[in-house]
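check this one:
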Amino acid sequence: MGYGGAGLRTPRGAGLLPEPGAALRSQWGRLMAASAERPARSLRGASCSSRSAPARKAATASARRDPAARTRRRQRGVSRHPLRGRHGSVTNGLRCRRGDRPGQLRPPRSPGLPRPPSGHEVRGRPVATHRAWAARGAHLRAGRAAGGQGRGKRRVVSGEGRGGVGRRARAAGRAPVPRLSREGGAAGRGAERGRRGERGAGAVTAPRCPVMAGAGAGSRDKRATAARLKAALGGEGGAAAAAELRALLERVLAPAAGPGGGEAAGEALEWCRCLLSGGEPWDSFVQAVRAYDPATLCGLVWTANFVAYRCRTCGISPCMSLCAECFHQGEHAGHDYNMFRSQAGGACDCGDSNVMREAGFCKRHRIKSNSNVPCVPKDLLMMSELVLPQFIFSLIQHLREGYNEPALDLPSEKDLHKILQVLEPHVSFLEDLTKMGGAMRSVLTQVLTSQQFYKDLSSGVGENACTKKSHEKYLIALKGSGLAFPEDKIACGMQEQGAGTSTLAVQDQSIMDVLKHKCFLEELLFWTIKYEFPQKMVTFLLNMLPDQDYKIAFTKTFVQHYAFIMKTLKKSHESDTMSNRIVHISVQLFSNEELARQVTEECQLLDIMVTVLLYMMESCLIKSELQDEENSLHVVVNCGEALLKNNTYWPLVSDFINILSHQSVAKKFLEDHGLLVTWMNFVSFFQGMNLNKRELNEHVEFESQTYYAAFAAELEACAQPMWGLLSHCKVRETQEYTRNVVRYCLEALQDWFDAINFVDEPAPNQVTFHLPLHRYFAMFLSKAVKCQELDLDTILPDQEMLMKLMIHPLQIQASLSEIHSNMWVRNGLQIKGQAMTYVQSHFCNSMIDPDIYLLQVCASRLDPDYFISSVFERFKVVDLLTMASQHQNTVLDSEHERSMLEGALTFLVLLLSLRLHLGMTDDEILRAEMVAQLCMNDRTHSSLLDLIPENPNPKSGIIPGSLSFESVLSAVADFKAPVFEPGGSMQQGMYTPKAEVWDKEFDPVMVILRTVYRRDVQSAMDRYTAFLKQSGKFPGNPWPPYKKRTPLHPSYKGLIKLLHCKTLHIVLFTLLYKILMDHQNLSEHVLCMVLYLIELGLENSPEQESDEEESAGGQERCHDSWFPGSNLVSNMRHFINYVRVRVPETAPEVKREPPASTSSDGLASSQSSRRKSLQRENSGTAQVFSLVAERRKKFQEIINRNTSEANQVVRPKTSMKWSAPGATPQLTTAILEVKESILSLLIKLHHKLSGKQNSYYPPWLDDVDVLVHPEIPRYSHGDGMTAVERILLKAAVQSRLNKRIIEEICRKVTPPVPPKKISSAEKKTLDKEERRQKARERQQKLLAEFASRQKSFMETAMDVESPDVDIAMEVATSEQHVSEAIYDCVICGQSGPSTEDRPTGLVVLLQASSVLGQCRNSTEPKRLPTTEEEQIYPWDTCAALHDVRLSTLQRYFKDSSCLQAVSIGWEGGVYVQTCGHTLHIDCHKSYMESLRNDQVLQGFSVDKGEFTCPLCRQFANSVLPCYPGNNVERSVWQSHSNKCMQDLVQEVEDLQEQLGTFPVSISSETNLSKEMESVMKDIKSTTQKKYTDYSKSPGSPDNDFLFMYSVARTNLELELVHRGGNLCSGGASTAGKRSCLNQLFHVLAMHMRLYSIDSAYNPWRKLTQPMQDKNSELVSEELPEVPVLYRDVSSLLLIQILTMPQPLHKEHFTCIIKVLFTLLYTQALAAISVKCGAEDRLAWKEAGALKKNTSSGEKSWEVLLGHVISELSKGKIYEEGDTEELAVVNPDSVERELQQFCLPFLRITSLLQHHLFGVDLPSCQEEEEFTVLASCLGLLPSFQSAHQFTSASCLDWPVPAFDMISQWCSELASFADRHPDQVKALLIQEPKWDLPRLLQLPENYNTIFQYYHRKTCSVCTKVPKDPAVCLVCGTFVCLKGLCCKQQSYCECVLHSQNCGAGTGIFLLINASVIIIIRGHRFCLWGSVYLDAHGEEDRDLRRGKPLYICKERYKVLEQQWVSHTFDHINKRWGPHYNGL
């Protein structure tokens, strides 16, 4: 997985690729992430921006898959609309228009909008332009300083749009990963590099001439010299002092190269500081100058990666930005703001009222202080005016010196780098000066712009050889700076084009010729460009912008160098970085309308830009192969060139778009005819580029990916400027502009047609998706009609031109259909990619929408018959449109016929239904787009924003009265809050269409237009069907509903003619007939579209025809006897009797044909017999109908009309005979008897669809009202029958004759024409229907059966929480009294017992876990620290306390004894879980072998033993053998034994002595014992060594012993945690997991019995027998054993149970529990005695002594407590006085304490009993848990009533209680004598732990982000690039940081091992997502923070406020505690220790 920018990123399938092709999927993410994952609004063609870095120039598709690269491409995000609350990823509109700064990227603006109030204007008052420098006095400067305060400030830009942090704005920074930038220094672009002033990096040596007084002096001498000079300059000897100063500076600043350069640079800067300050200390000078800075702005300037905010509620300029501090101190609650990560830097706008409303200022910047800024004293900056010119000149000298004109190519990067490093301190010094405020900036401006200074210093004349040399270098460098320089072989085409351009006379020369510099600023910019825009220089130049004079001068200089910038950019190796920096500057200059207008007028900015763009593209032109390959004169850009592939052109294009957004500039452009001609020339370079030729034979060898570049180029270089221009053509007054554009556009199109030799037939098998000229023409036409009230006909060309214009867009529509029909399959996947991109949301309104609109315009003006014929011919389905049952298609394979016919009809429906440009308002368009997207799928808010095409329809409420995006959304959709499924799949908040939208607004036509994938259409229909079923409106499978259209704009009324032309009616009749006759290749879709077209025709019929009269003219025109007129309403009832068809001789029609004579007689007689009905029927036979011929004829007619050669008219006769070229000759003519009309066909169709005869009954016969109100709801949804009924009703409503005929037809329902055929067909249909019905019923039955089976499987196999099922299924306990358990092997399917030779095993997952160790004894979870004060210390966790206890014990007691006194596994314990499935172990081995040989990449590592359960696919890594004969003793255990306690104690002891007496002897190595050993090895290797090795002597067997019983303890404790920490709920495990503890105990027991416990040390004896006094032993050197009272009772329990021979008897188990309970109880008493005060102790002691001799003394806690106290008092245990006083005075609290102390043990014991003996756990209330568990375990002889119950009544002492207690206490007493300080600490154990919890997170994500994203790592003390924080313990880590890597493990992986034994849960700060590390794998879990729309914001791309989602966090915690990450999360990958 790549890691891009701000967060881990999984590669996403991009939105526009054909699913299969990974190659395609490559970098498309940048073009459009259609997936919900890419929430931010992407540019209208996102790709546009993308440019791969130089390293990737030749990268193949696979290389492009890198998400980091995608981030880089995506980074040019831009805001979407001035006041819109969202931002875009790649702009759409202007690319980057401004930095983070006020003017930062100007959001793309749509044509319909007024310009937003611009924050880009020069702020403050205008200043008179250049005054002579000499005339400026200090008072002038002071005046400016005081008055010009608002004039603006640093405009450092970043390229963000209003994008989120992860977004890359185009404007400036585009490289997401800071690369080494040229100027030196590592990553941060603007980071202060170099060692300011102290050391340069070599090259400037000390002065060469004798050191003048003080030149090398110490700083005190320098200061003195400076003070002296300053005084002299102010006094009499000014001239002499000036000369001395000049000489001093020349020596100090001389550009000498030598080893001591660094010191010299430091020295020179030191001198400059002293001189500028006139001997004052530098800091105080800086303070003094700052005092005269008028600014009250924040103005904080930042560099890349700074996180800033943008509030659209407070912003006046759409690009205002605030630093975090100002943002948080302002009041922005409830505003529309977002956070973003700056790409190239920016500045804070707080305090600047030009950019933002004052209400949004922070507290610091609300105060106004500009009024009282004093004038600058004359002498303060006097020295600066003298020193700075020389300083800047020396900088230029260095730049000249360092530049060597390369022999061939650019100077090597290393050389440039070196020079820049040397100059770093100098530029930084200048930058510091700019930060001193307005006063110093105005001095700098004078110096930089003064021509006099420049002339004096830099002319190159003078005695200094060094200066001369540098001047020569400068002249050489200047050579290539003009456009006309010979190095560019100018394409011959250019001169001709150049000749026609407008005012190129003066200006063009200036950009053609070598540059001439007149001031420092000009030369400085020249070198900045030469050195490829070093970041430091860029920052310095931008820091000066607040000075108004400077800004104007700099802008002009920039324009002057524009051509040179383009030339440098083209040659640059780092075009990516350079582009960012160029735009970084230009966006600040050109976003200001006033300034842009000024340079347009004074410097011909528009001419320069257009010319430079033309020149740039000329270098990559190739000959176009479209149409006439040999003779074509047209040239197009070559999309394979680096210039296009890397988007190198975008800085220039984006500047052009930027200036066109200003009305005044655009106006100049639209008025300048010469410019328009040049621009159309430029656009024509893209017309027809990236031509696709259909491969017919071989599959294409190499799939070219150039189409990315082609789509990007058309969108950015053609469409964006077009939208920019259109935005200024919104009112009547701008009609002239539109006429100009349309005129020159048509001229360019005519030239293009001529150049490619186009007449009327497009070349076959070719398609280009790029027709920008057509689209310019279309969009300006649309604008003219929509906004400017122009008459369309006045600007449309003649018919012939329209015929030409329609061909190529129509060709694209047909090709789309071909591509989807797989006819282009040999061209590879990229052709599908193009088809999808063409309709994709970011491109559609610049591509498919204008194309369809243009075709609508053509259709409305051309002859309809010609147009319809053209469509069918283009779609190659003409031959299919015959009545004959067989036909031959010469141009199409039969398998493609159906889909091409569907394509042609669908296209016609689109063409006739769409109203996007034909009359819909912007609001209606927005609503229709939104409904279409929501109907396809529920959408998240961000994906909806992304999917709705942006450009022409602004989605923010800027146009008065328009509905904003949000209000439309709330009108059409309901919000579905995110749901959390137990399976762990997390959803986002979604919007789903409201019911009334489905009911009334669902528009299948719009859906078809907007789907990228065909499956989305089906998805919309499925959802529609579901809605109808659910709401009870229609039960069956509905057809797409018919939706009424918005009325057409009058200009386009001609479009309706298409519906009323004979050609279309013939096609419709033919298709209806064919469908009725069941001809092949006709689908339901075809019928659906045919009916849709008929209905459209009825809806849009011309004025009601008079029913009875039939026009005579109609008769004449009807030469082919098809239809009398062209009105659909009347043609529907027209009967057609016979049709003459051309058929192959094999066709059935031929054989049936009667002899010729009969034929004619038949005709005659039929005519005579039907004379009466002639009014309705036409006698003749309808001729063979040739669409092609019709079209040819029409075309010819038009040409002739145009050329007035009437003699060439083609006679109709020939047109009839014309047949397609290449048609096989054996076609013969047959006459077909039809005798049908469209109405009769429709009625029969109804019968056919319903499967019943006479199914149609005219509804008006029952209810006449139907005819008056035909809009009946029951007709609005339904299937084909409903559609037919609706159409017949509409036909009847429109004409009385139709109504009568329909009634007539229904009365006689004629038997079908060829009687036999149809009857059999109908019979077939009926049979078919019956068969289908039966099949459906059968299927339903099967499905139901399958569903119930599946349900029962799920219940048994998966985690369904149903305890009853669990118990029934419990492995190995399922059959109570059968002797042996039977297991099913899920691999071989055999059932049988587990035997020693062929053991069966449970599929298990072993994982190390530290979850238990995270328990704390506080009920409140810890909070994640978000301030320095809050810190988390791990001292109070369960794991830490257990560790401390063990190490304390080991200090004072014998090691082996310590290791049996506690349990380990709180950290790094091994948890075993199973899915419950079993398999033979030999089957498992072969299964693993097959996995090893499997080549498929699995998500797990087979070498580590990992696999998935063959049945349920749950992740597992081991098999736990099932012990044979598990159930033998079950029945015996149920009975109560009557043995007395003493006997049982003795039996237990004897059993422990018999070691190794297994039913299976270990000596005989059976398969079972081998497997048990191997699984034990697996268990040990699951956790790290440090978690198993606690012994002082490494490798001691005590370690293994301790580890094994601790595994059992860990699993029991974890089950307890899963049950909620207690057993009140009873039943089987609530985690719903099958338990494998029984099998686990067998394995552990077998291994533990291998270790013998020396009988002398057997704890059992100590517990059950009074020992002899062993005090004598204490003298020995050895450490004593751990006193019994310090031992952990649960550990003792497990040791006892697991060292007993298996299977264990129930009575022995109960005996062990009883004995251990006595010990536990004594420990509880001892703990209580230590806690209470001395007085209480005395009282208890006496009270106990009184009752000691009563019969129940041993079962009374008072007596026992008294005894314990008296025994312990013998030692020094109670001596220390610092006991914490506990209020345990009253008996109740003591009883409660005792029960609480014992409960954990009882719970563990009950669980153990449940697993070993299958005893059910009873459920109970919390307060009675102790009693219930005690009786369940057999500690309570008989249940006593609750009120008199005491815990002591559970005691059953094997020997007299007081003896045992005394013995145990004496051990403590003797320990206390030696170590009195430790006694108590070890006694008071803390048994009450709260459940493990993750850290509590703050409500708002910003709290976390602000604290952590700049926090330094404690290990490497750097700010991590990708910070992360552990949600278990709060540790801050560097994700993937090499800085903190240890032994090849990165910090997160390391931490996951230390904190969670291999499981880590990390929150990635910069991405807001959580990643889970599990062992060697990791996965992205998702985010627990969602925005207001319930969506994640991965990588913080949108930067919207995020809030904690508690449900998700609970799910995360649940998965952590239940160890189910592996099972629930599916997308795991290896991390190779690199996280």
User: Anything to note?
Assistant: The mean pLDDT is 76. Residues 870 and 1260 are 40 Å apart (CA to CA). The first strand starts at residue 3 and ends at 4.
